[in-house]
Structure formats: C-alpha cells, structure tokens
Amino acid sequence: MEKRKTVFVEGSISSNFIASSIEKHQTKTTIGAHNFFLGQVRADQIEGKIVQAIDYSAYQEMAEDKFYEIQEATLTKFDLTSLHIYHSIGKVEVGEICLFVLVSAAHRRVTFDALEYLVDTIKKEVPIFGKEIFEDETHTWKVNN
C-alpha cells in the first residue's frame, strides 16, 4: 500500500508554510495558474459570547481516507497539475489559518472550478469536528456552513 502524505497540521497553518508550498511549484514549468483557499477562524458571536479559538479533532485515519478520496475524485474530474490540502488539528486561535487548499493547472479557469468543488466537498464530507471555545472557556460544537 502506498504511503500518503498526511493532510493534518498540528495547530494553525503558518504563512511561512503556505509561502513555501507555493514556492515549491516554481520549478514546474507546465503550470500557468495557481489558486488557493485559506480558511480562517472567525470571532463569531454565539448567544452573546465571542469565539476565541476552535479546537479541531477527527478520527484521523477515517478523515485522511476521505481526503484521499476527494483528492482522487478531483484529479479525475479536473485537469490539474497538482493539488494539496492541509487542515489543522488541535487548537487554532481566532485570525489563524485552519484550512489551506492549493490547486495548480496549465490554465486559470480549471483552478477556479476545482477549488470551489474541493472546498465544498471537504466541508460536506470530511469528518472533522470543531469545538468553538469562548472567552470564558465554555464551548460548543461548531456547525459547518
């Protein structure tokens, strides 16, 4: 069985990690377009309390399998040169990045379509759970929308 690269990053996804990921593609001269999505933790107000962080958890093996299925389906559906997905696990503070999706292709249009498909499918299908933590340390389970 092939060894797959893990999707999960402990804590927030740093700007250096994002920049490095994009920089690594400069040697791939068949790429004409990159498109990326960054999911950031919002300071939502829920029942009068402000979210301070989200603590992400998952049954990682099952989630990794689902991410792999989504990647394979996306690569079959769209003419991409490369596709990368990274999602935080653990605590991510408001303002920090929790999801990074990068798609690359010869032409720009396919990157827009593929990226929208990918993010929508991830939100619907991947078993990742977020516990929203408030300033008073109480919490509630996040509803994806």
Report on the structure:
By secondary structure, this protein is α+β, with helices and mostly antiparallel strands. 31% of the residues lie in helices and 37% in strands. It has a single domain (8-137), classed as Aldehyde Oxidoreductase, domain 3 (Alpha-Beta Complex), CATH 3.90.1170.40. It has helices at residues 15-23, 60-77, 108-125; strands at residues 8-10, 33-40, 45-46, 49-58, 82-93, 97-105, 128-134, 139-141. Strands 1, 2, 3, 4, 5, 6, 7 and 8 form an eight-stranded mixed sheet that branches. The mean pLDDT is 93.
Please give a quick description of this structure:
This protein has 145 residues and is an alpha+beta fold. It has a single domain, classed as Aldehyde Oxidoreductase, domain 3 (Alpha-Beta Complex). It contains three helices and eight strands.
At the fold tier of CATH, the topology name is Aldehyde Oxidoreductase, domain 3
Q: Give the helices and strands as they follow along the chain.
A: EHEEEHEEHEE
CATH superfamily grouping:
Molybdopterin biosynthesis MoaE subunit
Q: Give a short account of the largest sheet.
A: 8 strands, mixed
Q: Roughly how many Å apart are the termini? A: 35 Å
Q: Could you estimate the helical fraction of the residues in percent? A: 25-40%
Oligomer category: single chain
